[in-house]
Write a structure and sequence with these properties.
The protein is mainly beta. Helices cover 4% and strands 45% of the residues. It contains one helix and 21 strands. Strands 6-7-8-10-14-13-12-11 form an eight-stranded mixed beta sheet, with no helix packed on it. It has a five-stranded mixed beta sheet with strand order 2-3-4-5-9, with no helix packed on it. A four-stranded antiparallel beta sheet has the order 1-21-20-19, with no helix packed on it. A hairpin with a 4-residue loop joins strand 16 and strand 17.
Length: 306
């Protein structure tokens, strides 16, 4: 890939809680996010996020309606609904945009038996400033190039996927490693039709990766996930990443104050700030947080200049 992705994981917000700094990078491993609001019951299974027209957009996962919901950023109420025509929500797990196109990932694969995974696409410009509407979508169909076993193995395999992000050139997927707790990075072109997603990297995520977003302007990648059974969210920040080079596991941040939240979605909405959403879990209602990691970015730049 011709461009290095300045990646960063982010998570937690204002206010920050900085533990004693560890390692040569000088980053604290612990953050405290800022709770913003519970989410309406209409989107209690929020799974992916993107920001557009001053609104936070999300969707429900498996079995939900084929609708993208816009939330205002004051009360976090639903103010707009976009229905994707002829687009069934078999298991929508993430959504992202490259500034021109919206990509909706229908690639949830808990049982590991899906042979044809799908990403719905449509122009970002098709979303009106206000009001509900319907949009006709195109599709990218794909399969994982390294999967050969399609027997039903609920949560006993590594071919589930809940995280997607777009760069200037490609779409990337991060697998959800139910069996090993690791993740693989797959690459797709943005071309409609059938494709094979090939592995270009991976790392020991020590948990389930559930969301990702890429800040194209500042060249930062944010990755969120949680440790299964204990519902303990975490974030990764990865700097100066190249898909076939640097490992993705440079900086991990724990979010112990969010224990019990099933963190699912993440998106940038401003320089160095993100929204993070969590769907309803056994111990917590669906809710949204804000993460301000500008201090992390400044620290990384200072370290690079030394």
């Amino acid at each position: 890939m011709k461009k290095a992705l300045f990646v960063g994981l982010f998570l937690l917000l204002s206010p920050f809680v900085w533990a004693q700094e560890e390692g040569s990078s000088g980053f604290s491993p612990v953050f405290v996010p800022e709770f913003k609001s519970e989410l309406p019951k209409e989107i209690e299974e929020t799974s992916g996020l993107f920001f557009h027209n001053g609104k936070l957009w999300t969707h429900n996962d498996s079995g939900g309606k084929p609708i993208l919901y816009a939330l205002d950023t004051v009360n976090f109420e639903v103010v707009q609904r976009i229905t994707l025509l002829k687009a069934k929500n078999k298991d929508w797990e993430d959504v992202c945009t490259d500034g021109e196109t919206v990509f909706v990932g229908d690639f949830g694969n808990n049982k590991g038996s899906r042979k044809k995974l799908r990403i719905f696409t449509f122009p970002l410009s098709a979303i009106p400033e206000e009001g509900d509407t319907t949009i006709i979508v195109d599709s990218i169909l794909f399969r994982f190039g390294d999967q050969t076993n399609f027997e039903k193995r609920k949560q006993a395999h590594d071919f589930d996927c809940e995280a997607m992000f777009a760069t200037e050139d490609y779409l990337y997927l991060l697998s959800k490693g139910w069996e090993t707790g690791t993740t693989r990075l797959y690459r797709l072109s943005k071309t409609q039709g059938e494709q094979v997603a090939e592995v270009v990297n991976g790392f020991d995520s020590q948990g389930l990766i559930t969301g990702a977003d890429y800040d194209r302007e500042n060249r930062i990648l944010a990755i969120v996930g949680y440790v299964k059974t204990v519902w303990k969210p975490f974030l990764y920040l990865i700097f100066d990443f190249e898909e076939d080079g640097v490992k993705l596991s440079n900086h991990r941040f724990e979010l112990p104050q969010l224990t019990g939240a099933q963190a699912e979605g993440i998106c940038f909405f401003d320089d160095g700030r993100c929204y993070i959403s969590a769907e309803t879990s056994p111990s917590m209602t669906a809710r949204v947080f804000v993460a301000d990691f500008r201090r992390i970015i400044d620290k990384n730049l200072k370290n690079k200049q030394q």
